[in-house]
Amino acid sequence: MYLVNLMEQKVSKLADSYFKEKNIPANTNMRMDIIAYTLNRVQPQYVTSARGVLHSYDKGDTEENIEILTTIEKACEVIRRRKENTPLESIPLIEENGYYLTYPSIMGNICSAKNSERVESALVYMYYKNKLIEGYGANFPNPAVVSKNVPGKFMFCFMPKKIDSNESINIDLDIVIEAENYKQYKSVLNFEISPSFYNANDMPLFSIEEVDDILLIEN
């Protein structure tokens, strides 16, 4: 037995037809945003067997399709407006087709080893082969800044790196943390990464890795 939401395929097909009919140049990321927006606003239809899937093909619900297309039209407006109002420097896009090493998005907490309280101010550096990794736009600098607004929290997103191979590799990232009244912290994070293929103007997709709480020792 398996579980399938028939709406996923139906919305995808109707969205692609709508893009073609209206001559909307939707790249991969915009297409997925529009489909996700629509699926979150229509009633799901689940089946648990191949018979259920086949039976759905015999049901041509015109009224339902009209409702979905109306939602897709609204999704196009919302997603397009959202992208227009977002500063370009905050969402860098892939420049050319090819395989890219996409580092995971790394997040974690920094606490005091003495009392486990969150450290309110710190700089978190991330290196690969002794070089700072380029952050993903202005919103994700390297070093990451820990402030009183969100004490103890840090998060990284990095620019994907174009490579010639599609083979998985193991990488070691060096993390260094500096905070006033605490000793410098150094450690190594290891990840196995499979390169991803992107087309030009795609927005990269990041996996999320949450590291264990980091405890800083006072001077």
Protein described:
With 219 residues, this protein is of the alpha+beta class. The chain folds into 2 domains: 4-81; 98-216, Immunoglobulin-like, CATH 2.60.40. Helix content is 27%, strand content 29%. The protein contains 4 helices and 14 strands. The chain starts with a strand and ends with a strand. The model has no long low-confidence stretch (mean pLDDT 86).
Tell me the helix content.
25-40%
Beta-strand percentage range? 25-35%
Q: How is the CATH topology of the largest domain named? A: Immunoglobulin-like
Name the average pLDDT.
86
What Rg do the Cα atoms give?
Answer: 23 Å
Q: How many helices?
A: 4
The total tally of domains equals: 2
CATH top level label of the largest domain:
Mainly Beta
| CATH architecture name of the largest domain | Sandwich
Largest sheet: 5 strands, antiparallel
Order of helices and strands: EHHEHHEEEEEEEEEEEE
Distance between the termini: 59 Å
Shape: elongated
Number of strands: 14
The quaternary organization reads as single chain
- Protein structure class: alpha+beta
**Which stretches are low in confidence, meaning pLDDT under 50 for 5 or more residues running?**
none
Protein name: Competence protein ComFB
InterPro entries: ComFB (IPR019657)
Organism: Brachyspira aalborgi
